[in-house]
Amino acid sequence: MTFSRASGILLHPTSLAGPFGIGDFGAEAYAFADFLAAGGQTLWQVLPLGPTGYGNSPYSSYSAFAGNTLLISPENLSNHNLLPTSAIPELPAGDESRIDFEAVEKFKCSVLRSAFAGLRSKSHTNLASACESFCRQHAAWLDDYALFKALFQRLCRELGNTCRRRNRRARSLG
To answer: I want to staple 73 with a disulfide (CB 3.0 to 4.6 A). Which of 20, 26, 58, 61 is the partner?
Structure first.
């Protein structure tokens, strides 16, 4: 098998600039792909795109199949009429040289909940049908992953509450 010569660049989408605290597959990603094409580049290599685990490393993913929800563009959700632009909350200002993963995750989760409510509305029957079809087609891994995420989030919340109580108690004894 022979391959023709090609060139490109390695850049994870989270490294792109953007208005939502982290790069995603929104307008900036399309502009970057256009920039590569204009420069004669034919490849855009990315790091793994799964949901990140400890340390937010793309190499530490909770799933080999699921995608990282932080890469979903709020603008694209708005463009698909899943939520009005006015429903996209402002991301609290932060250090633009670093990603505040905790703040971005809370922000994107809020946006995704609003978009899901939009998906369930009667005006999106085709998209809702496609989503249901995807869920049925991928139930072999999706159901277990959804259960894992729900239990993991609950455990993290409870553990956080326990740690806060212990810290308050320790300070009061101090």
So the answer is: 26
Question: Which tokens belong to 71?
Answer: 């890469």
Pair of tokens at residue 4? 């023709």
114 and 145 belong to one structural domain: no
Nearest to 20 by CA among 89, 120, 87: 89
Q: Are residues 75 and 158 in the same domain?
A: no
CA–CA distance, 24 with 18 (Å, rounded to integer): 8
For helices 139-173 and 125-137, the axis angle rounded to 10 degrees is 90
Residue 31 lies in domain = 8-127
Q: What was the pLDDT predicted at 144?
A: 96
Question: Mean pLDDT, 10 residues at a time, over the chain (174 residues)?
Answer: 87 91 94 96 94 88 94 92 80 74 89 88 81 95 94 83 72 71
29 and 100 in one domain?
yes
pLDDT on residue 92: 65
Let me know whether 91 and 120 are in one domain. Answer: yes
Q: Are 64 and 150 part of one and the same domain?
A: no
Check residue 90 and report its DSSP letter. Answer: P
